[in-house]
DNA sequence: AAGTTCGGCAACCGCCTTGGT
DNA sequence: CACCAAGGCGGTTGCCGAACT
């Protein structure tokens, strides 16, 4: 099931992720978040593209991600969502906590597409019922009813899960304050669920508001590239100790400007 | 038992959108 | 307004195990 890994001309690794790579990526994001996907692999000691790292995180390593079989309720909801949204996998993922857009897409292609086709055939083969005028089953009402049903399905599903997050929401999951043990407690998940990024602290790493003053001063604000200059693919792979200590001194150095 | 086909899914690719300059 | 970089999304590919012959 795994793709065998290989390196492209730029020394970027492709294919299946090893456990070691997973651990590095997980540990890095849990400790520092993902402030820049393109630069992240360098700091995490991975010879992967940023895109690849992002995908691996979003689809597989995110602590809230659910693995394993889809429930009947989830499948039913996907069918309804697909009817309503079409191939908007990421939008669909917003209604299915813990499921990635990729997973939903795969599920659709492997199982649900057939089921949807079957369902359609059954509906089409059903004889057309004659409607009494007093039933007032206008087209408008039918649409309204299906919307209501759809809304109810979503409410039921969300009630079953403590999270109502989406892959899109969680892709901005660059929280700080997680421990680096690699384990994820329910507290962590709750923290994540309740987390609302109110500032751009991590997305624009360590650049304080008074940047003008700092730039004019003799001190210079460190940026990640000040710490590491990988010139070859080989040099991008660094020891964890080095990475963590580099990052820590980077934070420490810039902290004085932020206070 | 060996070969072939099929199903499932992780990962890649290329395009589009968005935000910054 | 144009350009560029980064992130995000949907389509597709490729690998592997299971099922079938």
From TrEMBL:
<feature type="domain" description="HTH myb-type">
    <location>
        <begin position="9"/>
        <end position="61"/>
    </location>
</feature>
<keyword id="KW-0371">Homeobox</keyword>
<keyword id="KW-0677">Repeat</keyword>
<dbReference type="InterPro" id="IPR015495">
    <property type="entry name" value="Myb_TF_plants"/>
</dbReference>
<protein>
    <submittedName>
        <fullName>Putative homeodomain-like protein</fullName>
    </submittedName>
</protein>
<feature type="domain" description="HTH myb-type">
    <location>
        <begin position="62"/>
        <end position="116"/>
    </location>
</feature>
<dbReference type="GO" id="GO:0003677">
    <property type="term" value="F:DNA binding"/>
</dbReference>
<dbReference type="InterPro" id="IPR009057">
    <property type="entry name" value="Homeodomain-like_sf"/>
</dbReference>
<dbReference type="InterPro" id="IPR017930">
    <property type="entry name" value="Myb_dom"/>
</dbReference>
<keyword id="KW-0238">DNA-binding</keyword>
<dbReference type="Pfam" id="PF00249">
    <property type="entry name" value="Myb_DNA-binding"/>
</dbReference>
<dbReference type="GO" id="GO:0005634">
    <property type="term" value="C:nucleus"/>
</dbReference>
<feature type="domain" description="Myb-like">
    <location>
        <begin position="62"/>
        <end position="112"/>
    </location>
</feature>
<dbReference type="InterPro" id="IPR001005">
    <property type="entry name" value="SANT/Myb"/>
</dbReference>
<keyword id="KW-0539">Nucleus</keyword>
<feature type="domain" description="Myb-like">
    <location>
        <begin position="9"/>
        <end position="61"/>
    </location>
</feature>
């Amino acid at each position: 099931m795994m793709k065998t890994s290989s390196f492209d001309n730029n020394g970027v690794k492709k294919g299946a992720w090893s456990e070691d790579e997973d651990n590095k990526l997980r540990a890095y994001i849990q400790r520092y978040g993902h402030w820049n996907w393109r630069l992240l692999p360098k700091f995490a000691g991975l010879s992967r593209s940023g895109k690849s790292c992002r995908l691996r995180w979003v689809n597989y390593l995110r602590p809230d991600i659910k693995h394993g079989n889809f429930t009947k309720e989830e499948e039913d909801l996907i069918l309804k969502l697909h009817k309503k949204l079409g191939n908007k996998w990421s939008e669909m993922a917003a209604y299915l906590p813990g499921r990635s857009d990729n997973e939903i897409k795969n599920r659709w292609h492997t199982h649900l597409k057939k089921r949807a086709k079957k369902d359609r055939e059954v509906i089409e083969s059903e004889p057309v019922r004659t409607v009494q005028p007093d039933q007032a089953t206008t087209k408008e009402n039918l649409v309204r009813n299906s919307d209501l049903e759809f809304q109810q399905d979503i409410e039921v599903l969300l009630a079953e899960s403590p999270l109502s997050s989406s892959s899109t929401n969680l892709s901005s999951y660059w929280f700080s304050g997680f421990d680096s043990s690699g384990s994820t407690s329910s507290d962590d998940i709750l923290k994540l669920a309740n987390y609302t990024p109110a500032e751009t602290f991590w997305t624009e790493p360590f650049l304080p508001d008074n940047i003008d003053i700092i730039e004019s001063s003799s001190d210079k604000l460190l940026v990640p590239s000040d710490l590491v200059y990988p010139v070859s693919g080989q040099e991008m792979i660094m020891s964890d100790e080095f990475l963590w200590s580099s990052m820590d001194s980077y934070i420490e150095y810039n902290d004085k400007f932020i206070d």
